[in-house]
């Protein structure tokens, strides 16, 4: 009963509790273990369809009076779930791979960035293990770039700086990430030899890092989550 598509325990629990998908329990388990989302946090959910993580993220903000915000982005148009969500949740239909950082930052409270970024993005699985793993890493790299930027790149030359400044932008603006200092980042990956190398690249920028396969993950799935806490 644990194969893909089978109505297992988590599927039934999701229906019983009003979650749009069993994947809600993956984030719930991460939240219970790591306390990633604090009351009043600002959360960006990359690849938010069908909306189950939006539900869990909003619940984790606490009562409406605590404030906070949850923004979901997905290629598909996602309606804000009516259960477990409130006015603090909004969705944007866009391609994360092409979505400009300045527009993503503008979605955060006062344009100051997000305190938590969640990436549940996954490629369309082809069945070719190496290809799927490579595409997964590519999505993970995009989530990382949105979160922390590309600080290791050399600064732009004077000509580019002048061009950016003439457009009213500060030099290097696009290289800055939108995750606030001390913020948390979660990235879904498909298990492969490259996951360890990717996690090593990430962990230097965060105080804590861990790889987790939530109990709610199907036995047939190769999904694993890289959990990064406390952006330096």
Descriptive overview:
It contains 7 helices and 7 strands, in the order H-H-E-H-E-E-H-E-H-H-E-H-E-E. It has helices spanning 9-17, 24-34, 52-60, 101-106, 129-148, 158-166, 193-203, and strands spanning 42-46, 69-74, 89-93, 114-119, 179-190, 206-212, 223-231. The protein has a 7-stranded mixed beta sheet, sandwiched between helices. Strand 1 (42-46), helix 3 and strand 2 (69-74) form a beta-alpha-beta unit. It is globular. Residues 1-5 and 151-173 have low confidence and may be disordered. Keywords: Methyltransferase, rRNA processing, S-adenosyl-L-methionine, Transferase. Residues 19-230 form the Ribosomal RNA methyltransferase FtsJ domain. The active site is at residue 188.
């Amino acid at each position: 009963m644990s194969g893909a598509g089978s109505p297992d325990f988590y599927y039934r629990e999701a229906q019983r509790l009003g979650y749009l998908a069993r994947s809600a329990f993956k984030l719930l388990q991460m939240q219970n273990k790591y306390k990633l989302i604090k009351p009043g946090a600002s959360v960006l959910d990359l690849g938010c369809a069908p909306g189950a993580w939006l539900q869990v993220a909003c619940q984790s903000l606490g009562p409406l009076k605590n404030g906070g915000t949850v923004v979901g982005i997905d290629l598909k148009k996602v309606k804000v779930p009516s259960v477990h969500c409130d006015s603090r949740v909004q969705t944007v239909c866009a391609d994360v791979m092409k979505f400009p950082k300045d527009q993503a930052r503008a979605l955060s409270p006062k344009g100051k960035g997000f305190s938590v970024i969640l990436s549940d993005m996954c490629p369309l699985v082809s069945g070719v293990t190496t290809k799927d793993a490579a595409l997964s890493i590519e999505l993970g790299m995009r989530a990382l770039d949105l979160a922390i930027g590309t600080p290791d790149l050399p600064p732009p030359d004077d000509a580019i700086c002048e061009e950016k400044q003439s457009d009213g932008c500060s030099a290097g603006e696009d290289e800055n990430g939108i995750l606030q200092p001390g913020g948390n980042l979660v990235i879904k990956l498909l298990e492969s030899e490259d996951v360890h190398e990717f996690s090593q690249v990430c962990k230097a920028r965060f105080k804590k890092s861990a790889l987790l396969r939530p109990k709610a993950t199907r036995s047939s799935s190769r999904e694993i989550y890289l959990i990064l806490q406390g952006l330096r």
